[in-house]
Amino acid sequence: MMFRNSARLLFTNFDKMWKLLVYHILSIGLTFGFIAIFYKDYLSIAQYAYNETGLASVFQSGTIIGSGIAKALTLIADFVIVFFKQLFATNIWKGIYFVFMSFYFLPVLLNIGKYVTCEMMYGYMSSCRKQSFTGTFLKTLGSSIVYSIIKVIYSLPFNALIVLSMWGLTRVDNPIFDYIMPFAFVILPALLMAFKALFNAGWAPAKVVYNHNIFSSFTIGIRAVFRKVAAVFSTTFIFYLLAIVISMILGAYSIIIILPIMSPMIYIFEMVMFFSSQGMRYYIDADNIISPKKLEEIDKIEDAKYLL
What we know:
Layout: H1 2-12, H2 14-35, H3 39-53, H4 69-90, H5 92-127, H6 133-139, H7 141-171, H8 177-198, H9 203-210, H10 214-227, H11 229-250, H12 255-277, E1 282-285, E2 288-290, H13 295-298
Antiparallel strand pairs: 1-2
């Protein structure tokens, strides 16, 4: 039900998808611009890693599906390892700069976009009100920056676990595992990302709806998620599973199609989950209002003290 309502809200607010896409493009462009200051160094190192690992063979067909998928994934992992080894061996400060811009600065920008989207969806879901992306961005900039900075730091262990799990799969050297690896490479990251969602999905919605400080909002968000823990985990698992499968089948070019839809869909789902968990009525379109069960109908007696 939550997934269906999220899909309906996405199509009702399809303009938000394009606005968020433009914001993502600008954020990536800004980050790339900062990284491009040392583009000659990074490009030469990438070329070295590309040649050293023989990565060219992966892209000859434009996709990484088929009997050679295990080899392809292993070569991609090898390329990343060789790139960062050579980067830090060449100039440690440029290595730190690249890692900071790619894995902290850019995620902070993207999470600001998430906060703005959740704020816009709150306006629509609570009162069927349309808001401009730019106006909402400027209005919420103080709150969104604080949320994004802390959220990215908090997410680092989860992201590291996901990356390590994928790297670990490529290190298994067993002919039989080559047939299992494509399934493991799809299922394990999807499971870990769904697990991550349990501790992140309610944070931005709680901050947007109640406007408490960042830590109180985290606590409220966790409680909201765990009221519907099975639905949140299963829905996000299926969503990430489909996204990974489509990416692997269609190749790298599918990201152009998947990302613009995936990001707003996840953000809208988080808002729908939070409204449903809190027993808050919300517009699904101009003519229909969803009325979830009230908190007192779904909470246990010992949880009554948490009613908001």
